[in-house]
Specification:
With about 220 residues, the protein is an alpha/beta fold. The protein has 2 domains: about 110 residues, 2-Layer Sandwich (Nucleotidyltransferase, domain 5), CATH 3.30.420; about 70 residues, ATPase, nucleotide binding domain (Nucleotidyltransferase, domain 5, 2-Layer Sandwich), CATH 3.30.420. About 30% of the residues lie in helices and about 30% in strands. It has 6 helices and 11 strands. Strands 6, 7, 8, 9, 10 and 11 form a 6-stranded mixed beta sheet that branches. Strands 3-2-1-4-5 form a 5-stranded mixed beta sheet, with helices on both faces. β7 and β8 form a beta hairpin. α1 crosses α2 and α3 crosses α6. The chain is elongated and about 55 Å long. The termini are far apart. The C terminus is likely disordered.
């Protein structure tokens, strides 16, 4: 069984193939623009490297957010289009599950883990985990609010916003950055989906706040 995994929800674009019990191929490129033009060629590249045809794909996994409004919609639309064309199921996974899977020791039970996903604003997307399980819903919060929430506590941080958030929380919080790759990678998602270690959701976008919208200006003077 082959699983195709896609992600463009954050600061990178990536695709990966899981088959025969292991990761077969991956592509990962840091980028915040041009995901729509790059993602499909990435899919073709990982299929070619793995020696598989499109027909060999049995499931498609995609990060559904939270993340960049435009980026996550690119991956979701691509996954749905491929699923429709191939008549294959499409599964959604939240960014926190992928970030957790990328840590070296994500399931330590002796401490609390706050996963922080870059939102491209001052307020990262965060979710608290205890013993490898969610301890509350995800939300967006400023470093000041998080410092007040966890003041005087020891807190382990993971995710692609962990380094910046840890620096902002100190010295009010004993913030320690967890070991492991904090980036969101389709390769991590492919392993999670292929091993069925995380329960999937519908491939619908997970938004924690409304998108940035720039309204057109009216009554602009003639040039």
């Amino acid at each position: 069984m082959a699983v195709l995994a896609l992600d463009s929800s954050g600061n990178a674009c990536s695709a990966a193939i899981w088959a025969e019990g292991g990761l077969r191929a991956e592509r990962f490129e840091p980028r915040t623009r041009g995901q729509a033009e790059r993602l499909v060629p990435m899919v073709q590249e990982v299929l070619a490297e793995s020696g598989l045809a499109f027909g060999a794909i049995r499931r498609i996994a995609v990060v559904r957010g939270p993340g960049s409004f435009t980026g996550l919609r690119v991956a979701l639309a691509t996954a749905r289009a491929l699923g429709l064309a191939l008549n294959r199921p499409v599964e959604g996974y939240d960014a926190f599950a992928v970030a957790l899977g990328g840590l070296s020791q994500p399931h330590e039970r002796t401490d609390r883990l706050l996963l922080a996903i870059d939102s491209r604003r001052r307020e990262p997307f965060v979710r608290l985990f205890e013993g490898g399980r969610p301890a509350g819903p995800p939300y967006a919060a400023s470093p000041e609010d998080l410092a007040a929430q966890f003041a005087g506590q020891t807190l382990r941080l993971g995710g692609n916003a962990a380094q910046a958030l840890a620096a902002a929380l100190r010295p009010r919080v004993d913030a320690q950055v967890a070991e492991g790759d904090g980036e969101l990678r389709a390769a991590t998602l492919a392993v999670l989906a292929g091993s069925c270690s995380v329960e999937p959701a519908a491939p619908e976008p997970l938004y924690l706040r409304p998108p940035d919208v720039t309204h057109p200006r009216h009554g602009r003077p003639a040039g």
